[in-house]
Amino acid sequence: MTKKILAFICSCSLALLCACGSDAGDVSSTQAAASTQAATTVSPKLSSWELILVNAQNWMPEDYQIETASIQGYKIDARIYDAASEMIADAEAQGISLLVCSGYRSVDKQTQLFENKVQRVISEFGYGREKAEQVAASEVARPGTSEHNTGLAMDIVTPSYQGLNDGYANTDAAKWLKENAADYGFILRFPKEKEALTGVIFEPWHYRYVGIETAKEIMSRGICLEEYVAELKGEQAPTLQ
Ligand SMILES: [Zn+2]
Questions:
Q1: Residue 162 CA to ligand 1 centre (angstroms)
Q2: How many CB atoms lie within 10 A of CB 145?
Q3: CA distances (Å), origin 49, targets 22, 64, 101, 152
Q4: What is the reported pLDDT for 61?
Q5: Which of 98, 60, 119 is nearest to 179 (CA)?
Q6: Residue 46 C-alpha to ligand 1 middle, in angstroms?
Q7: What is the pLDDT of residues 99-122, one digit of tens each?
Q8: Interatomic CA distance for residues 59 and 21, integer angstroms
Q9: For the packed helices 107-125 and 129-137, what is the interaxial angle rounded to 10 degrees?
Q10: Entry pTM
Q11: Which of 104, 114, 116, 194 could form a disulfide with 151 if both were Cys (CB 3.0 to 4.6 A apart)?
Q12: What spacing in Å lies between the alpha carbon of 205 and ligand 1's midpoint?
């Protein structure tokens, strides 16, 4: 009984922070979460680890922990390892070489990256701290707001084009990913036409695991994760930019 109550409280606090739970495998907490959601008519899908929404308004839960596996030398959530490996192997078999260049980052690592960017902006433009943080945040996610902190995102380029810029979208690798990644459960997380809703610039290299069924729906409808999650809640996705 005590365990059930604790799990219930845990699910609630996670839901408040990010509308997700990291404990979907726990039967008692899943049931507790489901009954909470039924009362508020929120889809039980939202408690799935695959749908965690992390952006400028939805910060990582502080106690978020994952088991990682290594792919091409980069850590990712172990639960998406098989899907990622299969995608890369199938692409290779079709003559497309996919090169992972970023995976899981701890919040500490993100803090370091963000701080480096803030310092560069200050020295380059002479801005004060607040303004420099705003400018930095348009290119490097604030600590706790990056999907790389979840382990469910990978930046994927190709050996002949490793620049993280718009030009990558014209490569065969980027085109293959956009066409096929959903079959493995991955979505193009930051589409060009959705910048106002994701709060992030077009990133043709950033792919996020959401599960095959969800990925196919998101990619075929041309929506972003913010819109998909908002729909499940019966809401409109807020503007982040
Ligand atoms: Zn990325």
A1: 13
A2: 20
A3: 5, 11, 23, 9
A4: 85
A5: 98
A6: 22
A7: 999 999 988 888 999 999 999 999
A8: 13
A9: 120
A10: 0.78
A11: 104
A12: 7
